[in-house]
Each structure stands twice: as structure tokens, then as C-alpha cells.
User: Fold this.
Amino acid sequence: MRILVAEDEKDIRELIELHLMEEGFEVLKAEDGMEALRLFEMKSVDLVILDVMMPKLDGFNTARKIREASEVPIVFLTARGDDMDKVLGFGLGADDYIVKPFSPVELIARIQAHLRRYRKYSSIPIKNEIVVGRLRLNKEGCALFKDGEAITLNAKEYKIMELLMANAGRVYTKKQLYELVWDDAFYSDDNTVMVHISYLRDKIEDDPKNPVFLKTIRGIGYKLEKG
Assistant:
């Protein structure tokens, strides 16, 4: 899993990175809020650690921007420990607020707890929505969003995404997809599914030639991943 650490103090940033890597996490590092947002937009991130007092864009405004697009867990790690700062942090959607100096062991324990809760609910329908990583499908409005931005789909594309997102990680053959989405018999020379998958990749992937969401399992079929 990938964690974004935004901290302007190099020693602290590297200390956190060391402990996270020892636990098997991939780490993205940022020295300020603007760099953190850039990395967040470029990469799929499972949890964000934010310092409050950072140059260019502080932690509070960084969290506000992240919350506009994602429900990924946010942990504040900062020297600012007064109650008003904590109230503001939680009001912006933070999941935790840890005051420096901190115990790396406690930090890791809290991160793992937040990730367990996030994983539990990130790929199942909640309030007529399915959320898988950076993708959110609103079943009531038949709408798909990526990083908060609406993506226009036709009826068949929507049904494919609904099926794959509701069963994220499961591999479907072309035959299974065709029969479930088109509700008709599948013929082995039919390229309809492949064409629709290609159209979907053009719409949801950052780089359709190197997809991170809609994966092809060679010789078997397709599956959807968090990206």
C-alpha cells in the first residue's frame, strides 16, 4: 500500500519513511503542500500524513483540497497541539491528529488501524455508491467520478463499470461480461467487449496504453483494480 508523507523537516520525513518501509509500505514524500497535492493527483494513495506548518500550502488547506476529491484517510502529524487546531483538523475531515514528539510505533499502529477500516469499506456499496480507489460510482444517479470529476459513460459502459467495481479484483471472461451486461448469448468471435473496454480505458485511465484500473489478464479476461 502507498502512503503520502508531507513534512517539511527532512529528518522527520526520513524517519517516518524508514518505519513505513520496514512495515512494507511504499512511501511518497513531499516537502510542502503543493508538492503533496501534485503527488496525490499523479498517484493512487491509500493514506496521507500531513504536517500543518508547511511552506507554499499548509496542511489544513492541503487536507481541504484532498477531501474535495477523496475519502482517503488523513493523519495530521504536527507540533501544533492546541485544541482549536485539533478541532479545525477534524473539521476538515482528518481521521487522526498526532502531536509531536511522537512514537513511531504508535504512528504505525494508528496508520494500520485506519487502513483496515478504509479497506473494509472502500470497495463495497455504501449509500448507493461504490468506491474503488480514485473511482466512485453513484448508482442512484448512474454516474461515475474519478478524483471527483464526472466521467461520461453510455449505458453499456456504465453497466460494465458497475459490475467490475462491485466485484473489484475479480476476473471476468469476455463471455461472462457479455452475457451479464448485454444479457445475450456470446459468440467467440465477438469483439464487442474488447471495444467497450478500450473506450472505458480512454475515459478513466491517465495513460490508456498502460492501464492501472482496467487490467487485462492475458488469456482469461479483465478485472478492475484500485489503480
